[in-house]
Amino acid sequence: MRKHNNGVINLLLRMSVILSGTLLLAFTYYHINYQNHLTEGGFVGLSLLGKYVLGISPSLSILILDIPVLLIAWFFKGKTFVCNTFVSVGAFTIFYGLMERYSGWVIHLQNNLPVAALLSGVLTGLGAGMVLRGGGASGGDDILSLLISEWKGIKVGTVFILMDVIVLALSLFYMPLKETLYTGMAVVVAGYVITFTTSLGRPKLQKMPKIQPVLGKPQEVQ
User: Fold this and answer.
1) Rounded to an integer, what is the distance from CA 4 to the centroid of its chain?
2) Domain-located, residue 7
3) Is there a contact between 191 and 157 (Cβ–Cβ < 8 Å)?
4) What are the tens digits of pLDDT across the range 160-213?
5) Is 222 part of a structural domain of the chain?
């Protein structure tokens, strides 16, 4: 019974961390990024690029991007991780929708975009880091960053920065340079905050050993 109670408490704590991080992300994306016209990196940025170049709806392109990553995560991270990710993604949709419909709070920083970028980076990094610490991810791009991080032994925040910078560079096809550069600033800050949040109190990440194919293994001399 005591072991069962501990399991329930741990589950509630993990869900609390995931939902708190997701709420922070929704707040940041709506009140900082959206209200001050900062663009997006990751899969959201790629979906917007797909709409601009190919005319594909973001709702469809994000699904196309997310599904393969979720299947890979199910294989390497397990069903609990994927379920936690679904909780975060579903909660984000609800939180963002409620803020979009009912929040009258406007954080106007268009005349001070460096502050907007700094706030976006810190809050996004903290929110995404909390979701990762809770055992999930806030989206397919975060899952991909985590998998690459564990595979190559690179800090997850560094992978996050590299992926988003590439997407932002491509976003220059349809986004103004000024907003894209400040979004890049936010991405770099977020990457460092994610690294700090996910690595705090944990041992240094080790690179996974490469598996040598059996067919390519040298035969022993008899």
Assistant:
1) 32
2) no
3) yes
4) 889 888 888 888 877 788 888 898 999 999 999 998 998 876 655 444 444 333
5) no
